[in-house]
Design a protein that fits this description.
- The complex is a heterodimer of chains A (about 325) and B (about 120).
- Chain A folds into two domains: about 1-100, Phosphorylase Kinase, domain 1 (2-Layer Sandwich); about 105-320, Aminoglycoside phosphotransferase (APH), C-terminal lobe (Aminoglycoside 3'-phosphotransferase, Chain: A, domain 2, Alpha-Beta Complex).
- Helices cover about 45% and strands about 15% of the residues of chain A.
- Chain A has helices at about 1-15, 60-70, 105-110, 115-135, 150-165, 170-185, 225-230, 250-260, 270-295, 300-305, 310-320, and strands at about 25, 35-40, 45-50, 80-85, 95-100, 190-195, 205, 210-215, 220.
- In chain A, the strands form three sheets. Chain A has a five-stranded antiparallel β-sheet, sandwiched between helices.
- In chain A, strand 2 (about 35-40) and strand 3 form a beta hairpin.
- The radius of gyration of chain A is 20 Å and the shape is globular.
- Chain A starts with a helix and ends with a helix.
- Chain B has helices at about 5-25, 30-50, 55-65, 75-85, 95-110.
- The N and C termini of chain B lie far apart (about 40 Å).
- With about 120 residues, chain B is mainly α.
- Chain B is built from five helices and no strands.
- Classes of the chains: A alpha+beta (about 325), B mainly alpha (about 120).
Chain lengths: ~325, ~120
């Protein structure tokens, strides 16, 4: 770890930060990346790197490119500082970012009195941030995202079908959902940059609301309504079922802010389609997490318990398609 | 025959301890893990109390939907999944959705009894 601290110190010095004595401490959470908090007395940074030998969905290099593009587009993100590739000074591919004060624990944001102001501010802030993400020219991202061909809905369905097959769990309600979603895919639109995991757990929120959008690992090119459908699934409302947008707001309120910020109008029927898809995706993710426990990739009672939560998004999926 | 407490009663006792005593006593970042552990005990207790009824009902449902005699709920779910994936049931989706909801409700009854009508 001293080696890592000295590597980070060198990189910070190169970027003109003149760091003092650095301390590193692991930040828990985040299944697929290691996250370190770096401090030198009063200043703080964050290092995210791949665990050694892991393969991630969006390589670290591309995550750095995405955060740079988002930052240029005035999306609130942590300040991107440096990227080191495989064989570089961080030991594995990693990116160094500014630290953003706040929390990303959804139930706390939704319940604690000190976040009352944040809750009222969040829906329009999220609408604005998402409009800015969707306005990023995919061509400006270079090769950061695989090119999609054909229908973005069918491309996503194939991806999650493939993941389901890797797990091998028999889930007839999910299979039914896959068939319905194939038969009812909306007319394809020009593919946009889609964050892919746009929900309360991936925002840093402070008393004033949205401070940063994080975790770009599931970013891809696709239908912009996909991000909003995902944001609206019941699992991310944490009991605030009457507030479809992340448990804090209404669809109308969100769409008004999205359009004010230059977003193309999103048809609520299309959003509903992607909400159904979002439930399918969450069901598969739950199954995959339980499978990671069962196969020994990562033993954890939290992951194991998600196997018994598959039925929640299955139920919501069936409600949305009936 | 085992002495009391029964298996679900034992799990109730562990769930109560985890939820009411241990959870407030551990550091904040550990509390969610303790809550998950308490919930897991509650799920298993409900599953034990339900006995083989949910499996029998699923078996009957899958047998009816497949039009076959089936003896194992998991194997029947796999066969139904295979037929759905192949597209051969595409013209029955509207009919199958509420039937599969019966199956999903039986899972929710064990895992999250307040969810379906919440």
């Amino acid at each position: 770890m001293e080696e890592l601290a000295s590597a980070v110190s060198d990189v910070l010095a190169e970027r003109g930060f003149d760091p003092g004595e650095l301390t590193l401490s692991p930040i828990p959470g985040g299944a697929s990346r290691e996250t370190w908090l770096i401090q030198d007395g009063d200043r703080r940074w964050v290092l995210r790197r791949d665990p050694k030998g892991s393969v991630s969905l969006v390589p670290m290099r591309d995550e750095f490119a995405l955060i740079l593009a988002a930052s240029d587009a005035a999306v609130p993100v942590p300040e991107p500082i440096a990227f080191e590739d495989e064989g570089g000074r961080f030991g594995s591919p990693g990116l160094l970012m500014g630290y953003v004060e706040g929390i990303s624990v959804a139930p706390r944001i939704l319940r604690k009195p000190e976040y009352q102001g944040a809750r009222s501010a969040l829906t329009p802030q999220l609408g604005e941030a998402l409009a800015r993400i969707h306005a990023i020219d995919p061509r400006s991202l270079g090769n950061a995202l695989p090119a999609t061909e054909g229908d973005p809905a069918l491309a996503q369905l194939e991806e999650w079908e493939r993941q389901l097959d890797e797990i091998g769990e028999p889930l007839p309600a999910v299979e039914l959902g896959l068939r319905w979603l194939r038969a009812n895919a909306p007319e394809p639109v020009e593919p946009r940059l889609v964050h892919g995991d746009f929900r309360l757990g991936n925002f840093i929120v402070d008393e004033n609301g949205l401070a940063a959008v994080i975790d770009w690992e599931l970013a891809h090119l696709g239908d912009p309504a996909e991000d909003l459908g995902w944001l609206c699934i019941r699992s991310w409302r944490f009991g605030n079922d009457d507030r479809p947008v992340a448990g804090v707001g209404t669809l109308d309120e969100f769409l008004a802010a999205y359009e004010r910020a230059g977003g193309e109008p999103l048809d609520p029927e299309r959003v509903r389609y992607w909400e159904a898809f979002g439930n399918l995706k969450w069901a598969v993710i739950c199954a995959r997490q339980a499978h990671d426990h069962l196969s020994g990739v990562r033993r954890s009672h939290e992951l194991a318990s998600l196997g018994r939560r598959i039925c929640e998004p299955e139920y919501d999926l069936l409600q949305l398609i009936s | 025959m085992q002495d009391r407490p029964t298996a679900p009663e034992l799990l109730d006792s562990v769930a109560e301890y985890l939820f009411a005593e241990l959870r407030p006593a551990v550091p904040r970042e550990q509390r969610f893990k303790v809550l998950v552990a308490a919930n897991v005990c509650a799920v298993v207790a409900r599953e034990l109390r339900a006995g083989d009824r949910p499996d029998r009902e699923d078996l009957a449902l899958f047998g009816e939907l497949l039009g076959d005699h089936v003896t194992d709920a998991r194997a029947a779910a796999a066969e139904l999944s295979r037929r759905l994936r192949s597209g051969e049931l595409d013209d029955r989706i509207d009919e199958l959705a509420p039937r599969l909801e019966e199956h999903v409700r039986r899972k929710l009854e064990i895992a999250r009894p307040d969810y379906a009508d919440g």
